[in-house]
Design a protein that fits this description.
Blueprint lengths: L4 E10 L2 H12 L3 E2 L2 E2 L2 E2 L1 E5 L7 E5 L1 E2 L1 E4 L8 E4 L2 E11 L4 E12 L41 E12 L17 H39 L3 H5 L18 H26 L10 H12 L1 H14 L5 H29 L8 H28 L25 H28 L7 H28 L5 H10 L1 H16 L5 H39 L5
Parallel strand pairs: 10-12
Antiparallel strand pairs: 1-12, 2-7, 3-4, 5-6, 8-9, 10-11
Helix pairs in contact: 2-9, 2-10, 4-5, 4-6, 4-7, 4-10, 4-13, 5-8, 6-7, 6-8, 7-8, 7-13, 9-10, 9-11, 9-12, 10-11, 10-13, 11-13, 12-13
Family: Belongs to the nonaspanin (TM9SF) (TC 9.A.2) family.
GO biological process, one term: protein localization to membrane
Subcellular location: Endosome membrane; Golgi apparatus membrane
Amino acid sequence: MREPQMCQIVCKISVREKEEKLLKEKIEDEYRVNMILDNLPLVVPIQRMDREDAYFYQHGFHVGAKGKYLGSKDEKYFIHNHLSFTVKCHRDQQRDVSRIVAFEVKPYSVKHEYEGKWNDKKTRLTTCDPHAQRVITSSESPQEVEVGKDIIFTYDVDFKESDIKWASRWDSYLLMTDDQIHWFSIVNSLMIVLFLSGMVAMIMLRTLYRDISKYNQLETQEEAQEETGWKLVHGDAFRPPSNSDLLCVYVGTGVQFFGMLLVTMVFAVLGFLSPSNRGGLMTAMLLLWVFMGLLAGYSSSRLYKLFKGSEWKNIALRTAFTFPGSVFAIFFFLNALIWGQKSSGAVPFTTMFALVLLWFGISVPLVFVGSFLGFKKPTIEDPVKTNKIPRQIPEQAWYMNPIFSILIGGILPFGAVFIELFFILTSIWLQQFYYIFGFLFLVFLILIVTCAEISIVLCYFQLCSEDYLWWWRSYLTSGSSALYLFLYATFYFFTKLEITKFVSAVLYFGYMLIASYAFFALTGTIGFYACFLFTRLIYSSVKIE
């Protein structure tokens, strides 16, 4: 600490065919080397074009670079074999101790030469020499990757005093250079919300107020027979849907997600999940998911009881296994692929076992406890009685076709979040920090409002055209935004990422499929509950003989 080192030799290697192939492959694929010092990741400062004194930080340094010699057309591969480290320290004057506040590097490719015989670390290099104060500042004679050539690895360490305090050492890493676009995204999303809120308010005030007062004044039998719109289907609006068990399972899953995301975001906004705590976000999300099993069981069995179900254990079992089971299967398949590639990115078997243990040991029992508690509660009362014989649904206009209205419904929730989505994808796949949880929380709130409102608007139109099959449609209307999420992820893959390997592409689409599936459960549940409350509100305010 605080002792600068110059031109320290690490080792010398002789490149064999196998190593040459490996190094060239890694340089071609732009692999980066990551290091950590005192929990700070190594960064390469790169000057910004627009401001002289501003830098942005690239995580890790590239293994090497491709280039051509002057006058030559052949492309060669050069390895970064000299690292010039800068460790910035904040000095405590009273106690004369220093704490590390930044860890930077400038990589160089240098064809080292030395005098006499090779004598490990005691060899005197002529290309850089601490005794002669000869320092490397450029890659003028770079080190080529070629069979039979020797590569000598060296490094410098320089300690610089810094005014940055230890507590705020992460600030420069997390500095946001483009907050304007986030504000733009939020204003854009708010416009969508205002537009939808206006529609919902109009429906509520004008139509419902007028409709309800008109319905409640109907006296004569003839007028009663001429009723149109949503009141006509009051005897069928609360008829349990087909596949009601599956709906209960998905609503439970969505509630589990909603609880997990809400708590995670509150913690993140309050600054508990700092990136300095590596893996903290993932751990928090997994644990919260497991404990939110209680809510999943409770909400699915409450709905199941409303649909006149009697086997609560059956619904608890399905809630505990349907979503996590399918996600675990995809995850296991992807992990097997990474294992096959002998990658260090594979999740170890012990971690897999720990995940299964969390799932079976905590999540499943909690789902059962939640289901038991939910089933013990009295049944939710329907605001109107359901007729014995289902009413015939009249022929619908083309724009009320289920597929069309479901697909239209997903566009607005997706539109409200897609700019933020770009930043999230960039941080996951392009190695950048994502630490704008304040913005993310705002976007999450906007997403909730948008999903709820679009579902209510389309549900109202559907009931007005005397189609009472709203249960599944309300879930799928806002849930279809997951389809757009996956399509956007596909577009992002082909436009922003340069992935050529088959396994890498499978990994990308596999993980994005899991993310879209989760997004479907979340947005669908928000839309479903919005319609659930909306229909109860409108039908409970009408007098029905």
